[in-house]
Amino acid sequence: MPAPTKQTYVGQSLPRLEDRPLLTGQGRFAADISFPGQWTMRVVRSGVAHGRILSIDTRAALALPGVHAVWTGADVAHIPPIPFRLTGLKALEPYRQPVLARDIVRYVGEPVAVVFAQDQYVAEDAADLIDITIEPLPAQVRAIDAPGVYADDLSTEPSVIRKSFGDIEAAFRDAHAVVALELSVGRHSGVPMETRGAIGRYDEVRDILEMHGAAKVPHWNRDTIAQMLGRDRNSVQFFEGHVGGGFGIRGEIYPEDVLVCAAALKFRRPVKWIEDRREHLIAANHSRDQTHRIRAAIDAEGRILGIDNEFFHDNGAYMRTHAATVPDLAAAMLPGPYRVPAYRVAGHIRLTNKTPAGTYRAPGRYESTFVRERLLDAIAAKVGVDTVEIRRRNLIAKGAMPYTLGLETLGTHIVYDSGDYALLLDKTLAAAGWDDLQTQLQNRRAKGELVGAAVAMFVEKSGLGPFDTVRVEVTPDGIDVITGVASIGQGIETVIAQICADALGVRYDTIRVIHGQTDRIDRGMGAFASRVTVMCGEATRMAAGKLRDKALRHAAQLMQTGAEKLDIVDGEVVRIGGGPSMPLFELARALPDGLSAEDTFESTHMVYPYGVHVAAVKVDPATGAVAIERYVIGYDIGKAVNPRLVEGQIAGGLAQGVGGALLEEFLYDEAGEPLSVTFADYLMPTAREVPASTILITEDAPSPLNALGLKGAGEGGANPAGAALAAAIDDALQRPGAVTRLPVTPMRLKAMTSG
Amino acid sequence: MTEKSSITLTINGQNHAIAVEPRRTLVDAIREDCGQTGTHIGCEHGICGACTVIVDGEPVRSCLMFAVQAEGKKIRTVEGLATGDTLHPMQQAFIDHHGLQCGFCTPGFLMLAVGVLEREPDIGDDELIDVLSSNLCRCTGYQNIIKAVRAAAAEMRK
To answer: Of A198, A234, A274, A380, which is the most buried if we count CB atoms within 10 A?
Structure first.
């Protein structure tokens, strides 16, 4: 028989392999996992933003039937504070969070005690009976205020991130003009639909401590919790089930993860903790919350000569696992797609009495893109050219690629690997019908409507190394791809299967991608920084290629022909040109050690996708509401493995970007009392607020740093949304620079239009 | 509050005889006492809609209803949507239009959309968006959910 033609999977918008169990109620999210005899853990949290714990009376709680135990800080004093995973500056270490507060509480929501009980209802009753007396101390609620005392000789400003290149003094000395702005991005965060959850379980027979409900970075978390509890890493195993959204915040080590593990060990019982939504909104990582004071030196044509920026990053009450990551990224990624000959930044890391902060989709970049793009708009206004033209004048040229920025972040030198920024600007404006749009808007404004449009540009980063390892195995049921990355709902099982399918020569739906299981692969980096498709994808391609070579070599012997005369098509080793064939699984069965291969992709540089957002809005002066009438996104990600999933990532990111731009904000009163503790106060966009968007995925600049040219696609939908919407609102109001603060809530906008 | 009542919940045609406190929410009873974990809990204050089930033909937030209030009523959850291996048109449409990512909010959206379309098969586009805006999704940006529901509506009218 003739050999069948080979299907190509990479580049196709194929249906997801993940969907069916999720649609039929068969998902395994953290709350869905239960073990016989399990106890429920409930956290008792501080109701005071800053204060000294005078007493904790647990007697009434312990007397309640069904309550097994109560822990306070004294019970876990032997457990060290939670260490840093990224950007862990030494100066930040004294600010790490203990798993339960000792002596001092530093934010409303801080864990002070935990109750272990037979079920959730009893545990909550018991938690209410715990009487905590706290003597209030003055609360610090604004990061722009002068630093205060954190503890003893510690300031609330542990460190200042400084980065620079070029001669900034000369840039300002020689400037034709200087543009200066003060801009703020509010406090908001990922807020996944699944709250956090963790189940600790100790298997006494095998002496293995297990944590179920792992997410994002199971291997690092496993190693770290093992270390914190004084156990060998191989005696602790983490298991990832389904994860109901990640967005940066889910899956970092929080106090509760450590507590369920410690309790499972201590009590020899499975211990389950599921967060409720109120807890989530005051206890899981917040993000953003920066104020920037930026100045640009420009020449007469509006070309940037230098940027000098000072910003204040409100990290809340503790430095959690991300340590300085968010302010570091804000500082390092601020220059974006523009030629900036000289740059200087000072990012003040400040502690306040609010919920601790960490990364959220496009961390540091949502903020610094807002600031940079507001700056470009202000430069345009200063020199009297339009906002598109000012960008064209400043863009880094295609010929300058690869472009060494002269800054470092996440332990890597920033080198934009490839890009044609001007081309994408042209394409996106064309897709948006920019020129016609301008005419339409002018006509409508002449009739009194407050309508406007704007453009924002950005460079993203993705594919953070340093490595990913993948093992590909032929099994009787198909192909297993085993990896140390994680799924947070983004579709990695499908995308990795597509890459493996092409490299090996099998159908993508015969591939099972196994992730987030520390007992299946010794090391792994997890899912963050838009790294999975790039790093795991390339490792998969390499391992599958190795497996293919191995299979052909063995098959050649069995089939008594040369390996070069064989191919693998749909899981069958076939003779090129036809003849008898052999299924891969039979070949594997015929080999004493089966058929598998492992490979590791290492990378010391990130890869840099880039994009353009165009927003058109209408402002309702009566209500202060913003209706998004048109939204077009151009994003060059080098190579789209599954374009429909890429569009899904971008559209989802946009929804979150819109939320942060117009609605979402964690507000506090002067005493540090959180005011956004339900979904009635913390407003996330619904199907009404999120616009239909046109998404243009381009592949004009494949990355030279991996074979498929891949760049990550996870964060470009969110990154410049605040910047684009702010500028579109300015345009609608015909007041350049009017928006200086996100979110532009109806109340704030109404104040602007009536003021 | 710890006095338990014996009740029977009828979920997807199956009777579950359980004993619950009066304060136990319907969603906790469905998940913990009846073992049907496809219905998810997202906020427990009636806003996100992840826990939406169909009770006597109406989509309801099962976090805002007590289990004892559901006795004698017909409860439908996501586990009952498919017929054997054949997916409900709504489930199939969510696959076809990439209407889910993490999948956590999905059962709530499925039950909301099915409940409303069974009642109002010819619902207008704008009204449909109003209905869908009663649930929250954090992954998709909603457009693919809207497309999927429109496609399923057309299929369900056949």
So the answer is: A198
